[in-house]
Amino acid sequence: MIGAADASRYSPDATMTNDAESSHPQRQPQSLFLPSRPMATGSQIVISNVRRGAVARWSSSLIPTTREAPKDAEVPSHVLLHRGGFIRPVGAGIYDYLPLALRVINKVADIVREEMNAAGASELLMPALEPFELFKDTKRDEAYGDNLFRVKDRKGRMNALAPTHEEVITDLMIGCVNSYKQLPLNLYQVQTKFRDEARPRAGLLRCREFIMKDAYSFHATLEGPGGLNDTYDAMYRAYTNIFTRCQLDFSAVEAESGPIGGSASHEFMVNCASGEDTILKCLKSGYAANVEKCDVGPRPGPSKGYFAGEATGTLEEHHTPNLPGIDDVAKFMKVKPENMLKTIVFKVQSSAEDLAKYGEEWVVAVVRGDHDVNEGKVRDVSGCKIALADVKEAEAKGFAIGFVSPRACVGQKGVLMIVDRDAAVGFDDAKAKSMFWVTGGDKKDYHVKHFNWQRDLGKDPLDAQGFATDKGFPVGGLRGGDKDMVVADIRNAMVGDPSPKLAGEKLTASRGIEVGHIFKLGTKYSEAMGLQILDEKQQKQTVIMGCYGIGVSRTMAACVEMSHDENGPVWPNAIAPYHVILCMLQPADAAQQQLCKQLASELSAAGVDVLIDDRDDRPGPKFKDADLTGIPIRVTLADKALAAGGVEFKLRRDKTGKGDIVAVADVVAKCVATLNS
RNA sequence: CGGGGUGUAGCGCAGCUUGGUAGCGCGUUUCGUUCGGGACGAAAAGGUCGCAGGUUCAAAUCCUGUCACCCCGACCA
Fold first, then answer.
1. What is the span of the domain harbouring residue A607?
2. pLDDT tens across A289-300, in order?
3. Which nucleotides of chain B does any protein CB come within 7 A of?
4. Spatial CA neighbour of A269 closest among A188, A193, A203, A205
5. A211 with A289, same domain?
6. Tally of CB atoms within 10 A around A124
7. Distance, angstroms, CA A86 to C1' B46?
8. Backbone phi, then psi, for A432, in 5-degree steps?
9. How confident is the model at residue A322 (pLDDT cuts 50, 70, 90)?
10. H-only helix segments in A503-609
């Protein structure tokens, strides 16, 4: 997608103007062949609005390709970006962006800017360094914890290296905006962010310092023109445009809003098998969500009712030492994980007030061994803020962490047990026979076999009436409720579950890398920090906010994960560092130099970015290096073909070693046509 | 934060068990021969062996401490 219509901020005269170069003995003398510096004609400044491509020479750039990558580089994007001379490590999770990488990043950022501007947002730039007090109001110093970089200045004051800018921009707005007439506003920046990740890994995919576009919107209303929903939808469209224009294969999925708070959120994920996040999709309805958020469609309950089923044998205790995981225990006990019950203990995070009123409270979640508990769903069903219980605390309460069974909850005060629908059964409908469970033995290093809900729980499980099959079930045994046990959907969705959007459809799974995330923040920050405006009735009103992020440097890495082969990245045209690499096999040959200049000039005039490989090296290494740059088109100038008036034209994505011989007169048109197709 | 591992030339590694002049491959420089998918020959430059203590006549090697980096997990806009 290039061409004259594609206005660009690259200054066309940024290359080939190094006067000192001609005196450098190692370099080819060269002339300026881009007469494009804005020139004064009379009193008028003429500025071209046609995009000219950049032209650069390998010999005067820094593109340090290597045959081998550092041994700690494991994922493809890390290995290939290093080998291709895009990045170099500086420290753990900190990288230099070398010229090629910066060109990719700038191309992504330019697309981001164009689409953000088109969607009505304005760019600004906030500092990376913030006084620590700003984080105190919103308590995010605690929420971020050790992930927040702290910097002490010479006066002993604490500062933060910003992981994100909600506080700074909200503070800014407090000083600038006080009327509904000034809203809505949507402000963004492209800036370096800092997070002291516990474990930086995978090269650019999880760094401690990275480049991000973050946008924040401010509204007087939720609905209607200028409301948050309006801007949120505009951002959704802008993001779709951005990643489409970057020519990435991506999915927009529903997501949990996470610790940043807020009510609705979508993630934009680059699809690739090596991604860290799992996405569940209903292919027919188009519904997609991340595992944490994904809903499960309606399912029939067990045919004989919850918990119903005959015991299959006497309760046997087995000694199971040194088996850390469910799978290990299952193997040892000779059962499948789906025949095991996993019992997870959460502690209710009570306010001091609630603690005085209700005492310590716990929520125990029971799911099948092959399922994962979804903390968000447990939170919603219990109606309480919860966190995974501290092992020592839980053990003091009588839970043998690692070996807990549902029986441990019976008769305990302030404990709500939530049993997942798939765990609350005693009869296997598929096999048409009663089933048994393996559960913890409620003491260290013991598990039991043949657990039966009705026989072995120590109480009638059918007390768990009024099954909480939906979110928002009133609090059970906690806070004065009359149930201490409920059945509900509390596990992560998984492959094969019914689609929540379309009856009869099943969910499929795929992997992705998160590159964008949009949130409806609501009033979390404006309320905490006191951002208010006067509305048309002269009433004070708390401003409604949204925020919208794109990992720019991560997008570059994700693109390589999505599109590469063993020889290097394969960039899409839209964000390739250059579009064409002109590979001179006899760089000392005067005729070849002349032709190279001519082609570069013509390509540049057509808006094509050109890298000239003018190094005096053998063909083999030059071709390997060309592949490592991932530049979409390689045009090779070599004596034999040239004698017949031809050059070689080869696409990076084509596997074959050799390209086609094209007449010199046609090659520029062919490049442009290929790039625009 | 828990478990595991690694620090020796720009990169990849050997040497350490059993202390005795610091090596190999790639890359780099020079010369020559090559020249369409990471060439060949000859010569050369380049390391206070992560750092600090200790043991010893002598430490890359043994001991103690420390720092850095990586992997798995926990965590995670």
1. 1-54+578-677
2. 877 777 777 777
3. 1-2, 11-13, 25-27, 34-39, 68-77
4. A205
5. yes
6. 13
7. 25
8. 55, 40
9. low
10. 524-529, 552-562, 590-605
Q: Are residues A109 and A193 in the same domain?
A: yes
Q: Number of structural domains, chain A?
A: 3
In Å, what is the separation between the CA of A201 and the C1' of B4? 16
As a whole number of angstroms, the distance between CA A435 and CA A312 comes to 7
Which segments of A606-663 does DSSP mark as H helices, in order?
619-629, 639-643
Considering the domain architecture, whether residues A264 and A290 belong to the same structural domain is answered as yes
pLDDT band, very low/low/confident/very high, at A462 (cuts 50, 70, 90): low
Judging by DSSP bridges, how do beta strands A341-348 and A362-368 pair with one another? antiparallel
How far, in Å, is the CA of A61 from the C1' of nucleotide B31? 28
Judge whether A504 lies within some domain. no
Residues A536 and A667 in one domain: no
Question: Is there a domain that residue A107 lies in?
Answer: yes
If one counts every other C-beta atom within 10 angstroms of the C-beta of residue A425, the result is 25
Question: Which DSSP letter does residue A499 get?
Answer: P
Contact indicator for A608, A579 with CB cutoff of 8 Å: yes
| Contact of A556 with A101, CB cutoff 8 Å | yes
Residues ≥6 apart with Cβ < 8 Å to A240: A252, A268
Distances (CA, A) of A483 to A399, A479, A489, A619: 20, 10, 17, 77
Side-chain-side CA neighbours of residue A582 (13 Å): 31
Residues A584 and A537 in one domain: no
Structure letter (DSSP) for residue A180:
G
Integer distance in angstroms from CA A566 to C1' B22? Answer: 36
The complex scores an ipTM of 0.88
Q: What are phi and psi of A203, to 5 degrees?
A: 60, -125
3-class secondary-structure state, position A377? helix
Q: What is the model's pLDDT at position A4?
A: 40
pLDDT at A199 over 50: yes
Greatest alpha-carbon span in chain A: 101
